[in-house]
Amino acid sequence: MSKIYLKRVGFHLLPTDQESLIALKKLPLDKPLSCEVKQTRNYQFHKKFFALLDIGYDNTQKFGNCSKKTYRAFITVLAGYGKLVKSEYGMTPEPESISFANMTQDDFEELYKDALSTICIDIGSTSDEIEQNLINFM
Q: How many other β-carbons are positioned within 10 Å of the β-carbon of residue 71?
């Protein structure tokens, strides 16, 4: 069975797109159904998180010549979402997965807030300054 995307309207769930409407029509009437409900992640907010990381990466002095991927890993771990592990190269960040499947929107918003605080400390800026730059950056 395919995924069905619904939105809540009052005490009802209504399909949000044509594919969901078609799939919903195929379900039997007057029969109990079991489903798992997940709130979908906000893709625009996901893009804002990566724009935040770009601002931090472009202004960091502490992380030297690391890649953007490594910078994201360090910020994620320093924000409290992962751990540092010892490797042959020294301490290496091992961040938690931020994939849509592994993190709820609420948890992702907490990560964003914590990453923003971490980047503020890293680049010596305020959250208001960074948020204003994000408006211009996106």
A: 22
- State the DSSP code for 79: T
Q: How far is residue 14's CA from residue 82's CA, in Å, rounded to a whole number?
A: 37
Amino acid at residue number 135 = I
For residue 49, which of 10, 99, 88, 102 has the smallest C-alpha distance? 99
pLDDT band, residue 138 (cuts 50/70/90):
low
Q: Indicate the domain borders of the chain.
A: 1-37, 43-137
**Would the pTM of this model clear 0.85, i.e. be above it?**
no
Model pLDDT, residue 65? 81
Segment 20-44 shows an average pLDDT of 87
Distance of CA 4 to CAs 7, 23, 58, 102, Å?
10, 7, 40, 19
